[in-house]
Amino acid sequence: MTPQCETFRRGDSGYESARRATCRNLHLPDRYPDLIVRATSEADVVEAVRMAKANDWKIGIRSGGHSWTCNHVRDGGLLLDLSQLDTVTLDTESMTAVVGPGVRSNELDGLLAQHDVFFPVGHCEGVGLGGYLLQGGFGWNSRAVGMACESVLAIDYVDGDGVVRHASPGENADVYWAARGAGPGFPGIVTRFHLRLHRRPPVIGGRLAIYPLESLEEILHWAHTVGPDVATSVELMFVVSRRLPFTGAPGIVVISAAFADTLEQVEVDLSFLETRPPGAGDVPPFRVMSLAALTQETMAFLPEEHFHVVDNVWTHASAEQLLPVLQGIVDKLPPAPAHLIWMNWWPKLARADMAYSLEDQTYVAQYGLWSDPSDEAAVTSWVMDGMAELAPYSTGIQLADENLARRDAPFMAAANRERLERIRTEVDPGLRFHSYGHADA
Ligand SMILES: Cc1cc2nc3c(=O)[nH]c(=O)nc-3n(C[C@H](O)[C@H](O)[C@H](O)COP(=O)(O)OP(=O)(O)OC[C@H]3O[C@@H](n4cnc5c(N)ncnc54)[C@H](O)[C@@H]3O)c2cc1C
């Protein structure tokens, strides 16, 4: 390995802080890899894989460390930290970029903004492109421009024998198919993503309407009524919290982020807000904002230095069906920053043939956050009990907010899952790479 490449053996003095540093979630699992390798180059990755093979170790992979379940931290074997593979090469002429897996969503957007181009990056600072792109990528403006993985043109990856390979529609096509949606089940180590860039929407911004907690029923009915017709350039969601970042008080905030060519277009696209239920306080007009500012506002719901348990469902249940369940979840809502989100998805774009294959009209997720370790049991029960109540209405989950080590659920169409497992067996016969949390924790 190159001299810059740091390694930490279990028992070494720096081992525990290196293990800790691989996860954003303070809720670090009691799982201990034998060796942690902080790769600085593709050559380090190749050597690490050869070492794993020689020792018959499995490999856990970490790019940005934003997996809520710290999926990459496994018992025994190798933990490969790719956070330093963070270069970006831009070509605005061909509207393409080549990015390392350790590049963070907000870093990529900051660079693209300077060149007036766009990529549907994640909604929060620090999300690593490695895990984000592999699991699908619900990015800013993804309803209009597609899942982030649909803009992956090709990947470079290291296989279980330590061989560097390329996958695209014309080369290792099965691996390319898997790279767009397999998430933590991808059987290889992606060292570069080749991305297609998009035109940057000239107008980006959002509008908020804030309601008391008692308005849940009215908001839910209204959101289910307008949802199907909300323009794909608008992200409509509501968040329920005991302390909204905007007011410091309990409430429900209806958020409409919009991406458009002109302010006139925004006015048309957000006209559905005129039918919103009464009861909101002052509703300020649409604010034009940079994507960085929108991202920062989102971060207020998901502060760092917290313990997290997160879980989610896709659903096409009606407002009538969901109301009693969501009301129960809201009644038991722990103190902020724990919160519940309801998001309008209604996918309208025809999807490519790829591993990503399960979505639905509405997305509901519970974000259990706490800072006092003694709150763990209560907040975890809030999430797990809520999910148990929602399960009868669920058609599956997003891998973005997966909690598979605690609760199994479908995250891909059945045929795609079968195809993925066939590909895994073919390209990783030595089972060098871990799979989903519930499959081989
Ligand atoms: C605060 C916050 C906000 C988020 N917002 C969004 C959002 O807006 N949209 C969205 O879609 N998701 C979002 N997520 C979820 C996030 O995209 C996923 O957790 C994703 O896996 C994070 O990628 P990462 O590289 O940071 O994670 P990591 O924890 O490093 O990786 C997650 C898993 O992906 C696999 N993996 C990672 N890198 C590679 C690689 N190079 N090669 C092979 N396998 C690899 C590994 O199995 C690993 O266990 C958010 C998460 C957080 C914590």
Question: Briefly, what is this?
Answer:
The chain contains 13 helices and 19 strands. The chain is of the alpha+beta class and 441 residues long.
Main sheet overview: 8 strands, antiparallel
Helix content: 25-40%
Cα-based radius of gyration, to the nearest Å: 21 Å
The strand count comes to: 19
Show unreliable segments. Answer: none
Oligomer: single chain
Q: What is the overall silhouette? A: globular
CATH architecture level-2 label of the largest domain: 3-Layer(aba) Sandwich
Give the termini separation: 28 Å
What is the CATH class of the largest domain?
Answer: Alpha Beta
Task: Estimate the strand proportion.
Answer: 15-25%
Indicate the CATH topology of the largest domain. Answer: Vanillyl-alcohol Oxidase, Chain A, domain 3
Number of helices: 13
Rounded mean pLDDT score: 97
Estimate nothing, just give the exact number of structural domains: 3
> Taking strands numbered 1, 2, ... along the chain, how are they ordered across the largest sheet?
15-12-14-13-17-18-16-19
Q: Which molecules are bound in this entry?
A: flavin-adenine dinucleotide
Structural class: alpha+beta
